[in-house]
Design goal:
By secondary structure, this protein is an all-alpha fold. It is built from eight helices and no strands. 29% of the residues are buried. GO terms for molecular function: haptoglobin binding; heme binding; metal ion binding; organic acid binding; oxygen binding; oxygen carrier activity; peroxidase activity.
Amino acid sequence: MVVWTKQERACIQDIFSKLNYEDTGPKALQRTLIVYPWTQRYFTSFGNLYNAEAIMSNQKVAAHGTIILHGLDRAMKNMDDIKSTYAQLSMLHSEKLHVDPDNFRLLADCLTIVIAATMGTSFTADAQAAWQKFLAVVVSALCRQYH
């Protein structure tokens, strides 16, 4: 079980309070699909993903990015039991979608970059440390079914 300090909880909640889900989620997923093009293979039903411009203007990518951020919101609201919160999602991604679990880490890295760019100097080293700890727990929970 992960132990969260009051400061870490406050940092995570503060970050979420500043997020525009409809902006941050799409940007993070778009960045992932552009920087790591092999991740596109899981989104073949989304249509044209042939280049960065197509990815950036794809409404299905944008919508799924927003869904991802709302999913992270669930983890934030259940920080003491993220693994149980994500048990079904882990099963879906491993057994039905067959997503390479390393892609969760790639998306987490891209999300961190987008948040850092958006928050600027308010994304302090302490905030980043708490955020990356949070994402590490989320990624671990999503990878749970793979073990």
